[in-house]
Amino acid sequence: MSLLFITILHIPKILKSKGRNALIGVVTTHMGILILIVGVIYGATTGFRYSVKAIEDDMTVVPGLPFVIHLDKLVIEEFMAEEIVKLDPGFIPKKKQDSHLSLYKSGELWLTAVAAPGSPVKADNITILPSFTDIGWYFELIITGPQGDEKMIPIRPWKPPVINVGETPVMAHSLMDTGELTAQVFTIVNEQMTPLGIVSKAQPLELNGHTVTMGAQKRYTGLTIYNRPQAPILLVGCLAMLFGLVWHFYFRHRDRRQKNMDTTSHV
After folding, report:
1. Which residues pair with 169 in a beta bridge?
2. Is residue 91 very low, low, confident or very high in pLDDT (cuts 50, 70, 90)?
3. With 0-12 CB in 10 A as exposed, 13-18 as middle and 19+ as buried, what is 22?
4. For residue 72, what are the contacts with CB-CB under 8 A and spacing of at least 6?
């Protein structure tokens, strides 16, 4: 607010030394700065930004959003080998990475859309942007005990659980070495990872009298969800500053030229 007070206090001085037209530019520029400050504060108090993981055929609930996100499917298409040669080896994106989304309000389908990295979906002034690199596989392990009882364990790569198979605590992560999604099961003892075996659809793993088999497999993608309510305010502030600066310097130079011409004519 000090900018505004300083401008008001110095209006008589500015008017006398620079002229009325230049004064309009000074005041407008200062007002633009104030509008920018208000916009930043407004955005910080009302805006939000979330990073979440969406799994195929699962609902993603984000507290505070007016809708629920359902990832219907994630369509991935890789580049061919001859196409990869032409790309930057440091970063090879997917040729196609489409997230088919359905948004639900109050349990009812509200909107369907396709989002991709660089091509977000906007709904209710909220932007949903898929990640370039944060994609992978979610899978489930089914553990069958000696008595035939089954337990389903969801394996989320971003938060892998510790699973007790008999007396052995184990973890698992996905592998795609053979073109088929498999899971490597391992245990950690004294901070050392010891592999115990590979699990696939066709290859279960026997461990401590338990059978570990592969369950459902789904893709997942990272989503950035945000809104920017301050954007129109910041735009107005920038335009006000630009207008004020152009106005100020144009009339300031014009008034100086006029003053020089008057001085010359009097001489």
Report:
1. 164
2. low
3. buried
4. 56, 57, 100, 101, 102, 112
Phi, psi values for residue 239, rounded to 5°: -65, -40
The enclosing H or E element of 251 equals helix 231-266
pLDDT for residue 4: 58
Taking the C-alpha atoms of residue 205 and residue 163, their distance in angstroms, rounded to an integer, is 14
User: What is the Cα–Cα distance from 263 to 267, expressed in whole angstroms?
Assistant: 6
Work out the percent of the chain whose per-residue pLDDT is above 70: 79
Judged by DSSP in three states, 80 sits in: coil
Determine the pLDDT at residue 32: 85
Closest CA to 142 of 172, 168, 186: 172
The three-point CA angle 164-169-174 to 5° equals 95
Looking at the whole model, is its pTM more than 0.70? yes
Helix or strand (DSSP H, E) at 215: strand 210-227
